[in-house]
């Protein structure tokens, strides 16, 4: 399969490390193009969310320097981040992708947003030509597995998103959200989810500000709130008791000096900032201002932990289901790897058979229909017996997880099979796969 995956997530690295790897939606196509230019990379996909940045690639012979790409892409030294990286290959890549899509690797197990985020990453990669047959099959299957997990287990029942966890934290701080003014900075899906939860728990006035004012207006109208031009953000944000920020800005938009001004205008009434952006929107220095309380994405872990025990058994059921799917997928891919060689072998021996019949036909003279059938049956029988052992060996190697690549190479050398036959057979196999989908 030649699959490689490397990345960082909320379990391997704190937010101050993860934010250095974040790839914005606008920068994603260019980053993918750069990744495709790396030696050995045949296909690639990048998933970048608030909790993870992962590079998935199909590489020639499974060899590619993804760590080097990360260092160059983000202007970092490998020694500064290598300890936070995880890397998977082949079967482990399949398992990890299935678990991520099924929300078993999320901070909030069972949350539904990650599947949509992975689908968006897949769509962008396809749009720029970074995903072809190999990763297409992997991610298409991952989406089906995620659907099966959702349908056959209760891992997603009463599922909470990062946004809803943020709202729960706000309730713990204030006791009640009734009458509280909430400011949404950013008009993306995360803030929209936060707005829904806030209104459901009695929040009062809602203000929305976004760099694209039309999006702020759209979100505000949807929830009966008020849109504020982004250039008036610092003049109006002190009106809020709770600020939920998720802008995707490359640098912090709220710093300590802003907090001091906000608190002065509020006559020291406390403010609560929930920063669910990566990179972070709120500088940690804001926490040093008395009366300002800042919680970032990693701080939400304490609230998340209470969810895990309730859905632990369902998560275990989901893990078992995924293991079944991984075995099925890997077996299918291993079998597919030997199909081009089997087809090539069949074509090669059939060419020899036809050539030998043509060569001796002149010496045999005119044959009766019965004799033609006898020659055909005899020659085909010989070819089938010759093909039997190598075909059985190839299929067995794929099925039993042996080194199918080595067996393929041996068969190709023994029968002097040409590369172009394998390429043509592989193309035909891919066309068949596409037709099935």
How would you describe this structure to a colleague?
With 437 residues, the protein is an alpha/beta fold. It has three domains: 3-152, Beta Polymerase, domain 2; 162-308, NAD(P)-binding Rossmann-like Domain (Rossmann fold); 331-436, no CATH class. It has helices at 15-18, 28-36, 66-74, 78-81, 91-101, 113-127, 133-152, 162-174, 189-200, 213-222, 233-236, 256-265, 301-308, 312-364, 369-399, 404-414, 419-436; strands spanning 3-9, 41-48, 52-59, 86-89, 182-185, 206-210, 226-229, 242-245, 271-275, 292-295. The strands form two sheets. It has a six-stranded parallel β-sheet with strand order 7-6-5-8-9-10, covered by helices on one side. Strands 2-3-1-4 form a four-stranded antiparallel β-sheet, sandwiched between helices. β5, α9 and β6 form a beta-alpha-beta unit. α5 (91-101) crosses α14, α7 crosses α14 (312-364) and α14 (312-364) packs across α17. The chain is elongated and about 110 Å long. Residues 420-437 have low confidence and may be disordered.
Write a compact overview of the structure shown.
Helix content is 55%, strand content 12%. The protein has helices at 15-18, 28-36, 66-74, 78-81, 91-101, 113-127, 133-152, 162-174, 189-200, 213-222, 233-236, 256-265, 301-308, 312-364, 369-399, 404-414, 419-436; strands at 3-9, 41-48, 52-59, 86-89, 182-185, 206-210, 226-229, 242-245, 271-275, 292-295.
């Amino acid at each position: 399969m030649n699959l490689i995956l490397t990345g960082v997530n909320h379990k391997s690295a704190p937010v101050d490390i993860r934010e250095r790897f974040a790839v914005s939606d606008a920068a994603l196509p260019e980053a993918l193009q750069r990744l495709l230019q790396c030696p050995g990379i045949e296909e690639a996909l990048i998933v970048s969310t608030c909790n993870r940045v992962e590079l998935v690639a199909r590489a020639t012979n499974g060899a590619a320097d993804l760590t080097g790409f990360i260092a160059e892409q983000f202007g970092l030294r490998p020694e500064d981040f290598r300890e936070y990286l995880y890397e998977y290959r082949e079967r482990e890549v399949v398992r990890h992708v299935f678990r991520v899509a099924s929300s078993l690797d999320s901070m909030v197990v069972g949350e539904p947003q990650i599947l949509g985020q992975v689908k968006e990453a897949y769509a962008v990669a396809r749009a720029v030509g970074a995903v072809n047959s190999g990763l297409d099959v992997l991610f298409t299957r991952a989406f089906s597995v995620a659907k099966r997990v959702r349908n056959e287990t209760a891992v997603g029942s009463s599922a909470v998103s990062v946004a809803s966890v943020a709202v729960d934290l706000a309730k713990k701080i204030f006791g009640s959200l009734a009458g509280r003014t909430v400011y949404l900075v950013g008009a993306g899906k995360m803030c929209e989810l936060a707005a829904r939860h806030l209104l459901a728990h009695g929040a009062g006035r809602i203000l929305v500000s976004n760099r694209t004012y039309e999006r702020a207006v759209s979100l505000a109208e949807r929830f009966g709130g008020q849109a504020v031009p982004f250039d008036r953000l610092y003049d109006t944000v002190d009106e809020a008791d709770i600020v939920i920020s998720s802008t995707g800005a490359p640098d912090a938009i709220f710093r300590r000096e802003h907090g001091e001004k906000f608190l002065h205008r509020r006559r020291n009434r406390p403010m609560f900032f929930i920063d669910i952006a990566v990179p972070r929107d709120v500088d940690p220095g804001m926490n040093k201002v008395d009366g300002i309380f800042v919680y970032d994405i990693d701080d939400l872990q304490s609230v998340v932990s209470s969810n895990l025990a309730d859905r632990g058994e369902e998560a275990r059921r989901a893990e078992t289901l995924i293991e079944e799917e991984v075995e099925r997928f890997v077996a299918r891919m291993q079998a597919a790897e030997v199909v081009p060689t089997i087809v090539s072998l069949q074509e090669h021996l059939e060419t020899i058979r036809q050539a030998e019949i043509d060569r001796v036909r002149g010496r045999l003279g005119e044959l009766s229909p019965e004799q033609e059938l006898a020659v055909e049956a005899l020659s085909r029988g010989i070819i089938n017996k010759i093909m039997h052992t190598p075909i059985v060996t190839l299929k067995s190697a794929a099925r039993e997880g042996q080194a199918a690549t080595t067996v393929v190479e041996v068969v190709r050398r023994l029968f002097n099979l040409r590369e172009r036959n394998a390429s043509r057979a592989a193309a035909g196999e891919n066309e068949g796969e596409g037709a099935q989908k």
